[in-house]
Amino acid sequence: MFQARRIRIGALLALVAGTTLVAFDVQPAAAAPTNCTYGWNLSLNQESATCTDLVQETWYLRLTCERFNGLPDIHVNGSAVYGPGRGTSIARCPSGTEISGSTLMIL
After folding, report:
1. Residue 11 falls within a domain, yes or no?
2. pLDDT tens for residues 89-101?
3. Fewest beta carbons less than 10 Å away: which of 12, 60, 66, 78?
């Protein structure tokens, strides 16, 4: 009897979890610029993204900066580019880090 009760409770939790997932209203993500040229100035630990898409949203370049001393990575946001139009976002990692990744972010 205990086993049957555990199975029923598990089935009920799965049903509730499934219903909860359906109840969320997911909003579509804004489109990031896709026609971009990237540049790097490694002596300054800096990256730039110049995009020519005519997106309506404001966007910026975000760098992931890896620390050498084993501490968690940090994120640095570049300059904001306001749509519609073209623009360049520039971000620079602080000293004692190096660029390990970058992403275009929408505001």
Report:
1. no
2. 999 999 999 999 9
3. 12
